[in-house]
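Appendix B, Record 12. Input sequence as logged:
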Amino acid sequence: MTPLEPSKVEEMGAPGDAVDVIRNAYGAEDNGVMLVHGTQEGNFLALAAMRGRIDSAAVPVPEYEPIRVLPAFLGIKTVEINDVFQVPSHSILFLSNPNNPMGSFIDEKKLFELEETLERRGSYAVLDSIFLDFVNKSPRLWFRNMIFTISTSKFYTMNGVKVGWVIGDPDILREISGVSDLVSPGPLDLEARYAAILVSNREWVRKRNLDIIRANREELMSLIRELESMELSYVPDMPIAFAKPGCGLSGMEIANKLLDRGVMVVPGEYFGLRQGIRIGLGSINRETARIGLSILRDIIKECE
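Logged structural output:
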C-alpha cells in the first residue's frame, strides 16, 4: 500500500501494549504472540526453530519466491505440492495465505480441517499472513501446530518503520523465542508502539486501503473487458492481481517490455510460473493505474 507517514499514525491515538493489542485483535492464545522485525524474519525464525522436528518442507506452487527458497537455505528438503492437504507426515507446510500472487485464501473452516490433518500426521504449518487483513475483517488465529507471521508491510505499510509479529502455538513460539535470543535483539519499543496504534485502528486502515484498491481495480476490470484473451486471478479487496495475457509472451518478456516503458510488474517466473504478471493495485493512484494499464493494453495488442 501507499505508505502511511509516522506522524499520521501518531495522530490516531496513544498506543497500548503491542502484544496485548495484537493478541486481542487476532484472537491469539495467552503467550501466543511474539514481536519480530518483519514477516521474513518471523518465517526464518519459525523454520529454523522447527528443523529438529521435521523431515521436509512442503511448499505449494505458485508461491512467493522467498518462501520457495528459504527451506533449502536452511538445509531443509523441499517438496512441492498442489494442495495443502497433501502435506507429508513429519513435515512443515510453508505457504502464504492469502497466496502471493494468486490471492487464493484458506478460510478458518479449512484451517480447522488443516489443524486436524497436521496433528494426525505429526506435521506443522507456517503461514505467511501478510495479506490476511485485506480479506478477513476479524481473523481468529488460535490453532495448534500452526504459526502465522504478519507485519506492518502491505496492509499497515508505514514509511521508514517496520515491525512484525508471530502468532501461534505457544509451545512452538517458545522454541522460536530461543532462536531469536541467539540472533536478533527484537524490535525497538518505538516500533512496537506504532504497531499497537495501527492494529488498534485496523478499521480506519482498512477503509483507507480499500478506497485506493477499489478505484484501481475498476481500471483493471475495464482493461480485462477490453482484452478478452487475458485471464485474471483476483480475490476481492486484495492489493494484487495476477494476469495471464493470451499473447504467448512469457511473464518475464512482458515485464521487460513494460519496464522499458516505465511500468513495473512482477513476472510469473518469480512465483514458479512461466506465464503471467502480478499487478499491484495499492501503491498508486487511479490516474497512474489508468496510464500503466493502457501501456499494458498496447503491449498485449502488439503481440496478439
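The mean pLDDT is 94.
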